[in-house]
Amino acid sequence: xxxxxxxxxxxxxxxxxxxNRLTRSRDALVADYAGLTRDRIYxxxxxxxxxxxxxxxxxxxDQTDNMSDLMRKQAKLAIDEADLILFIVDGRxxxxxxxxxVAQQLRNDGKPVCLVINKTEGERRxxxxxxxxxxxxxxxxVISATQGRGIxxxxxxxxxxx
Length: 162
Ligand code: GDP
Ligand code: MG
What we know:
- The protein has helices spanning 15-23, 66-81, 97-109, 125-129, 151-161; strands at 4-8, 41-47, 50-56, 84-90, 113-118, 141-142.
- It has one domain: Rossmann fold (3-Layer(aba) Sandwich).
- The chain is α/β, with parallel strands linked by helices.
């Protein structure tokens, strides 16, 4: 069985962009507005010496409406299926209360989590990382899905952990 990795995080942090970059596809729709991905989308990632299944999810919010409930349900299913969670946060927006809630939920689930800070182009990694240590998830991966920053390092981390 191939390892399964799930992309989890608030809407609009760049999960689908990361999915497309890692799977080298355009299967996941990327949107400038939150909440386009509702279901789980599966892709294959093939790298030299390892491969895995990647799941994109709609994202987790603190809102309570039908759409958020649906996305939450899909994210939960993805988390249950996954061997490793890539928890994506937005380096430009900074640490948001929902990020802390999701981090708490992931710690409760007890699954291995890799914290990934996206949208970090043009900023120093120490400065971006600082506030996210408060999530208690250890050393973050600092990436830009659109520019490709940190993707090799992220893949190396994934390889070590699956
Ligand atoms: P999702 O809701 O988490 O799946 O987020 P999307 O992948 O749909 O991306 C939301 C928006 O963020 C889109 O406008 C993307 O182009 C943009 N985005 C994604 N990754 C990056 C990044 O690394 N840097 C910047 N500046 N924007 C990004
Ligand atoms: Mg999406």
